[in-house]
Amino acid sequence: MTGDETRDVTLEAIEIRQLALELRRPMVAAHGTTTRRDLVVVRVSTADGREGWGECAALAAPTYSSEFAEGALVVIRDHLAPRLLAGPLDPDHVAAATNDIVGHPMAKAAVEMAVIDAHLRTVGIPLAAALGAEASTVPQGGTVGEADLDDLLDQVGALVEAGARRVKLKIRPGHDVPVVATIAAAFPDLELHGDANGSYGADQVRRVIHTIEAGLRAVEQPFAPSELGAAAELVSADIGAHVLADEAATSPDAIELLARRGAATGVVIKPGRLGGLGGTIETLDRATGLGLAVAVGGMIESGLGRHALAAVAALPGVDVIGDLSPARQWLVSDPFVDLAVDASGDVVVPVAVGVAPPPDPTALEALSTVVSTVRPA
Ligand SMILES: [Mg+2]
Predict the structure, then answer these.
(1) Are residues 229 and 318 in the same domain?
(2) Does the annotation mark 270 as catalytic?
(3) Which of 77, 108, 170, 306 is the catalytic position?
(4) Å from CA of 218 to ligand 1 middle
(5) Residues 119, 92, 375, CA angle at the centre, nearest 5°?
(6) Among the options 50, 108, 270, 273, which is catalytic?
(7) pLDDT 10s digits, 162-216
(8) pTM for this structure?
(9) Residue 50 shares a structural domain with residue 104
């Protein structure tokens, strides 16, 4: 994605907001419970009035990865923004200018998305087209957190009703075989995945196999990211289901190691964890080159982040149904425009220029808990 057309346009201000978005229900997973989506969003603006929006995937607490919303806000405000202000509105410049900041891929991804959005609006191109997407729709994948069985059956039924072709259950030791068996029996045609968020011990390979045999077509991050031996043992058991690396898929080199060790049949790509859309495309290319399957993963995004995910999910090489559903599956309130679904329930790949339409200003103000604007010193 070249920035030729906007290289002479400089960034004049970077606004960082923390939003408090209400969830329909708490999201319970092995890594913790999310009760409210404390979401950091970024607006970049230029002297001539262009603007772009980006979303940070970090959750409220550093339990999924080391990043968390309040920390990401500080990293963007104090460390990323000063490196980018007065610099060019050029997507390729973001990674280079922030390369000396160690880690913080979700914070970097938020700023990169905002610059890409402003750049694409200037040149009049939708994100999906800029990335090379070919599909006009993407199968919808829903996710349910831990809950009791009756509640789960209701939630899965509602997702299927809303058009989901795949549903992902959160699993962990003690919330696995009977849960999967019950849901699989009730929805025999549904593609069921299980996400353990690394909660099985390296000595629990058999238990993961039993869980898969209860009706899963894919299992996501069964063991901790460092437990490559256990993951390789599971892959070699050849159980007829994908073994997807999620938390372990942190970079192109990380997935190359997974492939070499036989520790995954596929990877989950998340723009936040991979430092942005640039890193995501690089990782997707490496994964497909290694013969790995690819799914796009979600982080309870707003409509903004979901627009970016839809563009990535429409790319060639994404061949496993991932977490793409409208933001309203989780969020009660959202200042951004949500994804649309077609009559069959598939997500329509956005065609508006940029990453996503700008937010509703009134809703944005009402939902903001922190607003901070940085300008050139
Ligand atoms: Mg996962």
Answers:
(1) yes
(2) yes
(3) 170
(4) 11
(5) 65
(6) 270
(7) 999 999 999 999 999 999 999 999 999 999 999 999 999 999 999 999 999 999 9
(8) 0.95
(9) yes
